[in-house]
Structures are given as C-alpha cells and as structure tokens.
Amino acid sequence: MDGDVDLKYFSIEHDRQSLIPMIREAIDLSGGKLKLFASPWSPPAWMKTNGMMNNGGKLKPEYRQAWADYYVRYIQEYGQEGMPIWGLTVQNEPEATQTWDSCIYTGEEERDFVRDYLGPTLHDAGLGNVKVIVWDHNRDRLFERAKAVLDDPKAAHYVWGVWYCGDHFDNVQLTHDAYPDKHLIFTEGCQEGGPHLGSWDTGERYAHSIINDLNRWTEAWVDWNMVLDETGGPNHVNNFCSAPIIADTQAGKILYQSSYYYIGHFSRFIRPGARRVACAKTLDSLEATAFLNIDGTVAVVVLNRAEQAIDFILKSRGLQAKTSIPALGIKTFVF
Hints:
Layout: H1 19-29, E1 36-38, H2 64-80, E2 85-89, H3 107-124, E3 131-138, H4 142-150, H5 153-158, E4 161-165, H6 169-178, E5 183-189, H7 201-214, E6 218-223, E7 227-229, E8 245-248, E9 253-256, H8 258-267, E10 275-276, E11 286-292, E12 298-304, E13 310-316, E14 319-325, E15 329-334
Parallel strand pairs: 1-2, 2-3, 3-4, 4-5, 5-6, 7-8
Antiparallel strand pairs: 8-9, 10-11, 11-12, 12-15, 13-14
C-alpha cells in the first residue's frame, strides 16, 4: 500500500499460491540441505524516485529505513513458513536500468544503505546471521564496487561477501587479494538468446567460467535457470534464455542439455565443504581445477576447448598416470 512505512499491509500471500509450495518441495527433496538467498529487484513503486518498479529509478532517502524493515519482514515471514533465508543481496543488478523491475544504486549509496540501515536493522531484529552480499552484478566493476563498500569499516562489518556475473576473471582475484576475509560467489550464470537445444557450446561456456572462478577463490556458482520450457521461458518480458534442463511442454519430454552434464562434473564430485588445492598445468590448451573433499578424495576437473584430443600426465603426491581428454571435452578424475 502506498505510504505504508510501518508495513501494516505487508503480506506474502501471493507467494503462497505457487512459489512457497515449490520451494518447500525442493527443500524436502534436498533433505533439508537447500540454501535460500533473496535478491530484491525493486522496492515498492512509492519508495522510488521514478514512481514505478520498472525502468530503474532510485530508492528515496526518506524510505531507506522502511525498505530495510521490508527485508526483515520478508525473512521473518519465510522463516515462519519453514524456509530460513541463508543470505541476501542488497539489490539485483544495481547498475542496470531495465524495462522490468530494477533499482539503481551507486557504490556509495549501497555502502550507506548497508552501513546505516540494512545492517543495523537485521542485527537489531536478531538476524545478524543472515549473510549480506553487495554488488550483485558483473565482474567488470567487481573490484571498484566492492572497494566502495568494503573500504568503510562500519559497512564492511555487516558484509559477508560479494556476488557477480559476467567475465573479467582477474577482477575476482584482485577483489580476494584486497579483501581476503570476504567471500566471493558467482550469482547468475545463464546462456542468453533462447533454449539453444543440443548446443555443445553452452556447456563449455559454463565449465570455462566455473573453473576460472573457482581458481580465483570463488566459493559457489549459481545458475539463473535450472529448468525452462521449449521457448526458453516462461518470461514476462520475452527475455528468453537456455537452461541445463529444457521441458518440452508440447511433446511432454525432458531434454538434458550439455550444460547439465558439464555442471555435474563440478557439483557431483566437488562436494560442499571441499577446499581448493594447488593445481598447476603445463599446457595452455587445458583448463583445470582441483579440490580436496572432506572424505579425503581429490577431484580434478579438466576442460579441453581445443579441436583435437590431448594426451597429458596427471601427477599427484608422487604418483603419475598417463591419460587423455577428447577434443572439446571435459573429464573429472577422483582419487
């Protein structure tokens, strides 16, 4: 409701129609191990300078506290539904003016909102354990935007980590080197432009990003869409994309794409709690990463983006083995 700064009319009733039942089922299927993070795309229209949830605009300064209170109510309501929120980003794509829900923050505005409103409000509500993440946007501005927030000790106190998407892997390493106590997570992976049925490039693109991110202190990698229909939707603004799984609703078929299998080389063999170990290579044509799992096994994922098969020697702890990887292939070795 317009002007409802006390949130007397706040409700998640709309979410109970479809969203909450779906999330609850996913939590049950995961054995209660699913982590949920929230990412707001826009404050209510009346809180914004442009008077609408779409097309950018900014949060009006006089509504910063009401907006921080909104985060708390959302987290509390979902908690009562048996769905605890593990973390949240301050704003989805804070530098993008979109035809859909969007809101613009400068680095300084994000810093001030976290330091003076969101951080303290979460703390006072007993929600200091909820992970606050800044810069939910691209790698190209990652270091610059992280610096704007984390150079302020009071703001940094409330920030758990930084999220990003896009390319520019050196900025990921630079951000870790400057702020080694903060966490890095890739927030949004996606192949744009429709479903790309049968394409091998989509899986290769995922693996290239995941390997280069993990080798630069990234702790988790999130896909934007797990399942889409045969059009690359549904999407309310025709922003159609691909996904690891395409559900052909016309033919009644499930179509597993290359990205599904490429992601599996990481998610199935590099388990939660694993720690990255040194992995040096002598061939520029290969990309690789290695992790020590909590059960003592080591998982090494190797990507070959070349047009020909490559023979190589895998060495570890005084042992070595001759092996190979096919052209445009990916392999995981566990020992």
